[in-house]
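Design review, sub-item: ligand-bound model
Attendees: FS, YL, KQ
YL presented the inputs for the 7TS complex:
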Amino acid sequence: MKTASNPSDHKTTQPLAAEFNLLQIRQDFPVLKQTIRGKPLVYLDNAATTQKPQCVMDAIVGFYAFDCSNVHRGVHELSRRATESYEGARLKVQKFLNAAESREIIFVRGATEGINLVAHSFLRPTLQPGDEILISAMEHHSNIVPWQMLCEERGAILRVAPINDLGELIMEAFEQLLSPRTRLVAITHVSNALGTITPIRHIISLAHGKGVPVLVDGAQAVAHMPVDVQELDCDFYVFSGHKLYGPTGIGVLYGNSELLEKMVPFQGGGDMISSVTFEKTTYNTLPYKFEAGTPNIAATIGLGAAIDYVSAIGLKNIAAHEHQLLAYATEAFARIPGVRLIGTASKKAAVLSFLVDGVHPHDIGTILDQDGVAIRAGHHCAQPVMARFGIPATTRASFGVYNTTAEIDALVAGIYKVKEIMG
Ligand code: 7TS
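KQ shared the predicted structure:
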């Protein structure tokens, strides 16, 4: 069986910087120590969710073991500690995104909820029939369906900027679609199905040039590159904790404070009010206006730990490591006959989507799983991307901080096995 070249020929597993020690990083993730059917687990489904380092689990357990209490409510010691850790996580997110103020950081369940919050609280109250929302053809369903629902309700129009055969946004078309009726641009920073990094800074400056606010879906970006919301000058930025080595059930909406101040609440309930009578309720200040009810305190603290973890390694180092992995995998796949990559943009992050001639992606996934190689097969909640390429599904390998070239070799060996079995 032919495999990719010897991993020792490549330098990708060498430390990139003092902070980047791949062996140590792998030690931090207990899940990676297991075998699946006798083979070491090769986890290449990081775009779906990432594994969690021990420090994140410790932070969650530590909260439940020693500090379990509600936030912002109690006068007692445990509530004080819980509130301090919860608000401490907000400060960590603020620093992580370089937001100007901590009140611009709203904790939500994930990227999906962040987008729905903006749809409901920012756009819905003012959207008129004939108004337009501009997205791209490479969005995840989370950044399509909320806008579609809103358009249907308000008689507004969803415009879609097309992508080329490489999976890159066609900028001329995007500019043309940016019209006097555009009320919001909502666009992904990195495509989960193709790996394309969109020219988000340029997109934002074009939109702002016409007075149009921009929401960036950063679900696939924050774990893979440094993000600075002030430098980007975006109005909204959303991400999910679980794709950033943090827990599920927690995510972030960053919003420019001027816009957040003017927005109506998303949900009503405890914590989001400053006073309530049966006649009238006045709302709490930012960020609490958007955090109704008891939040996911443990997960928020876990997210804070995850941010500490990736920050200590350095997002630039993570980006460089994953860039090398992607280059190594792309090169190795180019040598496998009958394999076609879907998504070959000049700027990509951590995602390798592909087809193998005559084999359904689900069969590829099942055969790889026999050898402990975990990938995703399907439409990746991006059915319009599949339609654009005229295919029902792809097989997707997606990389994270702990992956190695040896794991890519295992993937490549698995693809040869698939061809042998199915061909
Ligand atoms: N936006 C993008 C670009 C995504 O990739 C995802 C999840 C979401 C939004 C939604 O995130 P959630 O945490 O709110 O669900 N993407 C994937 C994926 O590629 N495979 O599983 C989930």
